[in-house]
TrEMBL record:
InterPro entries: UDP-GALP_mutase (IPR004379), UDP-GalPyranose_mutase_C (IPR015899). It comes from Polynucleobacter cosmopolitanus. One of its GO terms (molecular function) is flavin adenine dinucleotide binding. Residues 148-343 form the UDP-galactopyranose mutase C-terminal domain. Transmembrane segments: none annotated. NCBIfam families: UDP-GALP_mutase. Pfam families: GLF, NAD_binding_8. Keywords: FAD, Flavoprotein, Isomerase. Belongs to the UDP-galactopyranose/dTDP-fucopyranose mutase family. The gene is glf. The keyword Flavoprotein applies. One of its GO terms (cellular component) is cytosol. This is UDP-galactopyranose mutase. Its cofactor is FAD.
Length: 363
């Protein structure tokens, strides 16, 4: 059988592209080397009946009404605002840094109006912002940088703040009020029945066929198709012809406890203690009511499945070589965090996929 489109990857990028093309009348085959759909957003019940995210916590948030309404076609939502604490020497501090964090760290009682002036006395003013270190020092100064950012960055990226692109640290705001939400987006929700159920509905079309446990890169000639959308690592597609792009991987340690609650918020960061970066307790995120609770500890590592592109000028320069090669392709398209070597959030992947399909259909 010949397909109009072969889509490699059943995560957000692949599933959204498949649905849009299928709705436009195209016959689509989606393949994934894993044995499930949903990519890293896949969720499932563990052996204790707790809904977990095997690949670490995924919290949906966006400022785009268009993307929120698009996904609302495939799921009902549960309102959820994520909260994160950082543990440091037996004390817990709100992250992102806010007035409560600053007062607790410096043993002060500043009002909202006074916080900005206090931070001005701590900031290391930078005339040019090139690295994540520049971002943090320019925002909060040395003490808060060492307490919350430098150690966490070293564990997460195996790089110093000074070696990481500015955009990574720029994702985390500094607040002068008591807002302790991790995200400030307009829409902060979780799929009521989980991500996997949402992906099942996205891929539910007579024009979509899904084939799991199929590694396209090892079986390139097995499928007959007109056009290809690839959502995996772009360097792997081209057999690392210019060299491997660096990615950070993760190792997950899942645990279950016979208690109702393990920690007071969804995620606790460990910037300077422990080998892991953070612990997430899933019942906070999902709202599931069930006996016992399940958590995951995350360990960042250099080898394993690629999760995060490593943003810095050297890696970007290497990516541009692959991008130049990709732009010469006539019927091959690349979309998603790994294919575009971008540190995308979930909503950004959806937006990028919708934009690609619009471009293809316009042609």
């Amino acid at each position: 059988m010949k397909y109009d489109f072969l889509i490699v990857g059943a995560g957000y990028a692949g599933a959204v592209a498949a649905r849009e093309l299928a709705d436009a009348g195209h016959k689509v085959l989606v393949v994934d080397k894993r044995n499930h759909i949903g990519g890293n957003a896949f969720d499932t019940l563990d052996e204790n009946g707790v809904l977990i995210h095997p690949y670490g916590p995924h919290i949906f948030h966006t400022n785009s009404r268009k993307i929120f309404e698009y996904l609302s076609r495939f799921t009902e939502w549960r309102f959820y605002e994520h909260r994160v604490l950082a543990k440091e020497k037996d004390a817990y501090y709100p992250i992102p840094i806010n007035r409560i964090t600053i007062n607790k760290v410096f043993n002060l009682n500043l009002s909202e109006e006074e916080v900005e002036g206090f931070l001005d006395t701590k900031r290391v003013k930078k005339t040019e912002i090139k690295t994540s270190e520049d971002v943090v020092l320019n925002s909060v100064g040395h003490e808060l940088c060492e307490m919350f950012f430098r150690g966490y960055t070293r564990k997460q990226w195996d790089l110093d703040l000074s070696e990481l692109a500015a955009g990574v640290a720029a994702r985390i705001p500094t607040r002068t009020n008591d807002d302790d939400r991790y995200f400030s987006d307009t829409f902060q929700m979780m799929p009521s029945h989980g991500y996997t159920a949402m992906f099942e509905r996205i891929l539910d079309s007579k024009n979509i066929e899904v084939r799991l446990s199929f590694d396209y890169l090892l079986n390139r000639k097995e499928i007959n198709f007109d056009k290809l959308i690839f959502t995996g690592p772009i360097d792997a597609y081209y057999e690392n012809c210019f060299g491997k792009l660096p990615y950070r991987s993760l190792r997950f340690e899942h645990e279950h406890f016979a208690v109702d609650q393990f920690q007071s918020v969804g995620t606790v960061n460990y910037p300077n203690e422990q080998d892991f970066t953070r612990i997430t307790e899933f019942k906070h995120i999902t709202g599931q009511v069930v006996s016992g609770t399940s958590i995951v500890k995350e360990y960042s590592q250099s080898s394993g499945d690629p999760y995060y592109p490593v943003p810095n000028p050297i890696n970007e320069s290497l990516y541009q070589k692959y991008l130049a090669k990709a732009e010469l392709e006539k019927n091959v398209y690349f979309v998603g965090r790994l294919a575009q070597y971008r540190y995308y959030n979930m909503d950004q992947v959806v937006g990028s996929s919708l934009a690609l399909v619009n471009k293809i259909l316009d042609k």
